[in-house]
Amino acid sequence: MKDMKWLWGKVGKDKKRYVFAMILAILVSFAAVVVPHITRIIVDEYISGPNSTQNLVNNREGLIFLIVFAIGFTLFRTSVAYISMMMMEKTSQNLVKTIRNETYELIQKQDKSYYSRHRTGDLMTRLTGDVDMIRHSFAWVLKTIVESLAVFAVAITYLVTINFSLAMWIISLSPMIFLVAFFMSKEVRPKHHAFRQRFAELNTMAQENIAANKVVKSFSREDYEIDKFNKKSNEYRNANEKVTFTRVKYTPVLDFISESFGVILLFVGGVYIIKGQITFGEFAAFSSLLWAIANPMRHVGIIMNDLQRFNVSVTKIREIYYAKSKIIKTEYIDNPSRFKGHIVFEDVSFKYGKHSVLENINFEIMPQETIAIMGAVGSGKTTLINLIARLYDVSGGRVLIDGRDVRDYPLDELRANVAIATQSVMLFSDSIYNNIGYGMKITDESVILKASKEAIAHDFILNTQEGYETLIGEEGVGLSGGQRQRLALARAFASDRPILILDDTTSAVDNETEIEITRTLRKNKEKMTQIIITQRITTAMYADRIMVLEDGKILESGTHDQLLNHEGYYKEMAKLQETGGEV
Q1: What is the pLDDT of residues 375-392, one digit of tens each?
Q2: pLDDT higher for 415 or 117?
Q3: Disulfide check for 418: which of 131, 365, 389, 566 has CB 3.0–4.6 Å away?
C-alpha cells in the first residue's frame, strides 16, 4: 500500500486523466451486461418463447432494432475502451518518464561511496527493467484488476436478478480461486527477488566485460569470460524458471476451476430449464456472461505474478529515492566565485570502513604553488586528492580551501573550482570537441583549441578522420592510452579552474610529450595551484615542493635538490630512473 501511495504521488498533473480513464474502464465493464441482456430478449421473444412466431411476423422491426442496437453498442463500447487504454498508456508513459528522470538525477547526486556499494549493472537494471515494470503495472495490471472486479461484480449482480440460486451455484467456486491465489503469491514473491538479483548480476557482468574487452583480449581470456557469463546466464535462467514454473504449477488449478463454471452452468442450468425455473433466454444470458466470471478468475495467476514483480521493482526504485549519501549536491550555482587556491590539510585522517588510509596529514599549499606527490601503490595519494574535491569526507581533521572547510562550501561551488585529470581516463561516446569542452558551461572554440595545444593533443586530433568532430567510442576506444590522457589533460586545461589536480596523467605518454606538457604546466603556473601525482622524477623535479607518502603518512617533503641530498624513497627512485635513462 505504501508503494502505491508513493507511486500515486508521482502521477502529478495526470491524476485527473488517470482517474477519468479508470472510470471509463469501469463503465465499459458495467456495459458488458447490455449485449447478453439483448440476447436474452431476442431468444425469449423471437426464438424460443411461446409468442416467438407471432412476434417474428408482427414485430420484425423490433428484432432488427435489437440486432442493430447490439452491434452499434458493441462498437461504441470498444471505442470507449480504446480511449481508456490510450489515456492509461499516456499517463503511464509520463509517469515512467518522471520516475526515470528523477531516479537518474538521484543517482547522479550520490557520493562516491554509494557507487562503491552498488554495481553498475544493478543501477542499469533499475533504470530500465524496473522502471518499465512500473509502467506495465500502472497501465495494464491495475487496469486489469479494476476491470476484472467491475465486470465480475456487475455480472453477478445481473445474474442474481435473473435467478439467485443458479448465480450462487456459479460463484460457489470463487473462494477456491482466492485461496489458490494467496498461496501462489506467498510462494512466488521471494523467487521474484532472487530472479531480479540474478538479472542485475548478469547485467553487471556483461557491462564489465564489454568495458574491459581490451584486457580480456590481451590476456586471451575470451573462453574464460564466456564460461563465466554462461554460468551467470544459467543462474538467471534457473531463477526465471523457478518463477515461471511456480506460476505454471498453479495455472492448471486456476484453469480447472474457471472451466468448472461452464460445467456447473450446463448441468445445473439444464436442470433449471427442465423444471421451468429459467427460460432459454435467461440461460443464454448466463452463458453469455460466463466469461465475465471465468476470465477474472483465470487472470488471477497472471495478475499475482505481475504484482509480485511490480512490488520488487518499486522497492528497488524507492531504495534510490531514500538512499542517504553524506555528500549531496543540494543546489546549482550559475556563477560560482573563483578560489585563490590556498589549500591546507589540518591533522587529516581517512578510513575506508575500519581500514586506515591516511593518518594525521598536515601540509599547506600556497596559491599558484605546484606540489608533486609521490609514493608506492596504496600509499594514499589518490585518496588525498579526492578529499580536496570532497569526493569523500575526512574521518578526522579538516581540509581548508582559502581558509574555509571544504564541507562548508556548496558542493557545486567547490567542484567548479577544481579540475581533475586521472590516469584512468573516462571519455564519452561523443566528438573530441565535446569531450574536451565537457567541463565548460559554455564551450568556446578558441579555448578548446588552446587547451588541446597545451596538452600536446592538437596535432593528433587533426590527423583523425574528422578532426575535432571525430566521434570516439566509449572510454576513448580507438585512441591510444597516451592520446586519451592528453584529451583528459586538455579537458582539465579547458575548464580553466584555479586548482588543477593531475593523477598520474602523463604515465602513458612518451618522454618528449611529457617534457612539452611539463613546460605547459610551468607556463600556466601563475594561473592555478597545481597538484601532480606522478612516479616520474622528470615531472616531479620542476615542482615547488615534493611530498612522498608511505602507508598514509608523509614520509618526505622538500624540493628536488633537497630530497636528492637525503637518503630515502625519492633519491632511490631518481637513481632507478637515471639508470633506466629517464633522468
Answers
A1: 888 888 888 998 998 888
A2: 415
A3: 389
pLDDT digits (tens, 9 = 90+) for 133-165: 888 888 888 888 888 889 888 988 888 888 898
d(CA 146, CA 99): 24
Q: What is the pLDDT of residues 273-326, one digit of tens each?
A: 888 888 888 888 888 888 888 777 777 767 777 777 888 888 888 888 888 777
Is 408 a domain residue?
Answer: no
Rounded to the nearest 5°, which phi and psi values hold at 474? -55, 135
- The Cα–Cα gap between 30 and 147 comes to 9
Nearest Cα to Cα of residue 170 among 258, 252, 296: 258
| DSSP assigned state of 392 | S
Closest-CA residue to 51 (of 277, 281, 273): 281
Q: Which residue, 365, 247, 266, 386, is CA-closest to 307? A: 247
Three-state DSSP string of 328-375: CCCCCCCCCCCCCCCEEEEEEEEEECCEEEEEEEEEEECCCCEEEEEE
Among 543, 546, 579, 539, residue whose Cα is nearest residue 565: 546
- Distance CA(150)–CA(352), nearest Å, equals 57
DSSP string spanning 134-195?
Answer: HHHIIIIIHHHHHHHHHHHHHHHHHHHHH-HHHHHHHHTTHHHHHHHHHHHHHHHHHHHHHH
Tell me the β-bridge partners of 345: 363, 399
- Each residue's pLDDT tens digit, 444-462: 888 899 888 888 888 888 8
Rounded to 10 degrees, what is the CA torsion of 224, 227, 229, 231? Answer: -140
- Report residue 498 as a C-alpha cell: 584555479
Is 505 inside any structural domain?
Answer: no
| CATH code of the domain in which 185 resides | 1.20.1560.10
State the cell numbers at 154. Answer: 456487475
Q: Is 169 exposed, middle or buried (0-12, 13-18, 19+ CB in 10 A)?
A: middle
User: What are 435's three cell numbers?
Assistant: 569531450
CA–CA separation, 403 and 447 (whole Å): 30
Contact 115, 59 (CB under 8 A): no
CA angle 302/303/306 to nearest 5° reads 85
Q: 563-572: list long-range contacts, CB under 8 Å, 24+ apart.
A: 569/374, 569/375, 569/376, 570/374, 570/537, 570/540, 570/546
Domain count, the chain: 1
Plot region of 390 (φ>0 → left; ψ -120 to 50 → alpha; else → beta):
left
Q: Name the β-bridge partners of 499.
A: 418, 529
- Say how far apart CA 566 and CA 550 lie, in whole Å: 16
Q: Kindly report the CA angle at 501 between 500 and 502, in degrees rounded to 5?
A: 120
Query: Which domain, by its residues, includes 188?
Result: 92-321
Residue 333 makes CB contacts below 8 A (sequence gap 6+) with 410, 412, 413, 416
pTM: 0.72
CB 5, CB 15: distance < 8 Å: no
**Residues 556 and 569: beta-carbon distance below 8 Å:** yes
Amino acid at 210: I
Q: Which residue has the cell 515461471?
A: 244
What's the rounded Cα separation, in Å, for the pair 370 and 387? 18
| Residue 333 included in any domain | no
Q: Which spans in 212-266 are helix H?
A: 213-218, 222-264
With CA atoms as reference, report the closest residue to 382 among 112, 110, 107: 112
